[in-house]
Amino acid sequence: MQNKRLAQWIEEHSELLSRTEQEADQALHAALYEGVIDMALNGETRMVNSLLESAAAHAVAVGRPLTNLLGVPQRLRERLWQRIGEEIDPEPAFIMLSAVDVIFVHIVRVTIDAYLDATRLATAAKATEISRLYAESERKVMEYTAEVARANRELARLEQVKTDFISIAAHELKTPLTLIQGYANILYDLLSEDRTLTLADGIRRGAERMNMIIEDMLDLSAIDTNRLSLFLEPINLSKTIQLIIHQMEPILAQRQHSIQLIDLDKLPSIEADAYRLHQTFSQLINNAIKYTPDGGQITIIGQKIEAHRGKPVSVRVIIKDTGVGIAPEDREKIFEKFYRVGSSDLHSTGHSKFMGAGPGLGLSIVKGLVEAHQGQIIAESPGFDMQNCPGSSFIVTLPVQAMPRAGLQVTRMPVVLESEESETLS
Ligand code: ADP
Question: Which ligand 1 atom sits nearest the alpha carbon of residue 337?
């Protein structure tokens, strides 16, 4: 490949470096030109080899095909052939062109080898990178799993702390409260003067409200620890609900709500705990009263649901109001204990006042009681809006034949036939 005349001739023809190469290939073209001179002058291949290795590595890295890369030496070779053929006498031209070909065979071979090496290296690096990423994501998944497990344990612990707190606080408060209630009653009976009577009555009513909250806490604690006792007997839901409405008449009148009952009298009698169902529907009707502005409409609808898809014959009671409604994100959370929607300044205090929130225990007790009967409760509402009042519906489904949750203490009342009942009464 050595040919000093060729080296000199190429060096003198630097116009061969004219900018016919694409911008990106200009540097490679120029370096190759120098490399070819070097090879022709002293047979030195080191410079050309390292130049071609880095060009091949770069081509692989940017995804340039080998044939495209080979275009650069190919064009230089063609230019040399053409110009040497035009300018040099045939005999010396033949010798020079033979040397050119040897040089370019070397260049093509080195380029192909370097390109293949670079491809192999890139594939190996990719595989290493992929396995590194895989190992890293696996480690992250494990970390997250451990974190979630830790968070779940912490949640369970906090839930237990809440349950313990409710139970301990309720039991501890109950005894002194009973004393206060007792003494307040005695005081009320002993006093005769109007002014002092009013004061004693204030203490009595405050203690009574406190007692209701403590009773709620005790119920919740019984539900949470599965210590609820159910006394099952046949229940006429229509009568239960009418009794509740009768008891709430003063509040309904005060808040000017009207109430409509639809098809409750068509419901079959169900086997359930009378006291607990009274408590359940009282809470739901009281909430409908509370969260509806004065002059609202409360509708209570009864539906019988036939057995389907493994579910037993059931009754459904829908308590529908024209109140402030519930935002979609709160529809499930309102059944959690101590959960109250929105900031506390939206609420007033009081058992039946508009927006008169309590401690946020009512619905979680209701859910616990309904589920103890193997029933379900859900809330439906288009959303929360204090101005336009889209309303809410609470839908309670209870099986006709009781099948209380496992683990509960259940007592079944003996069934009294209607004829026996009337005999006893007469
Ligand atoms: P509270 O003691 O606050 O009334 P509840 O458990 O009975 O507790 O209710 C939880 C929250 O659910 C209430 O604070 C209220 O925001 C919302 N809520 C309950 N019933 C209704 C209803 N009928 N309409 C709109 N919101 C309701």
Answer: 6
For 47-97, the DSSP string reads HHHHHHHHHHHHHHHHT--HHHHHHHHHHHHHHHHHHHHHHS-HHHHHHHH
What is this structure's pTM?
0.64
Quick: pLDDT tens for 86-95. 988 988 899 9
| Res 342: pLDDT | 63
User: Residue of the nearest CA to atom 21 in ligand 1?
Assistant: 287
Cα–Cα distance measured from residue 187 to residue 199, given in angstroms and rounded to the nearest whole number: 10
Q: Kindly give, in sequence order, each residue whose CB lies less than 8 Å from that of residue 199, ignoring residues fewer than 6 positions away.
A: none
Which residue's C-alpha comes closest to atom 4 of ligand 1? Answer: 357
Using alpha carbons only, give the angle 270, 235, 247 rounded to the nearest 5 degrees.
135
**CA of 335 relative to ligand 1 center, distance in Å:** 9
Q: Which residues of the chain have pLDDT under 70?
A: 19-20, 342-352, 357, 415-426
Which residue among 341, 352, 367, 370 has the greatest number of ligand 1 atoms within 8 angstroms of its CB, and so is best to mutate? 341
Burial 160-182 (b: 16+ CB within 10 A, else e): eeebeebbeebeebeeebeeebe
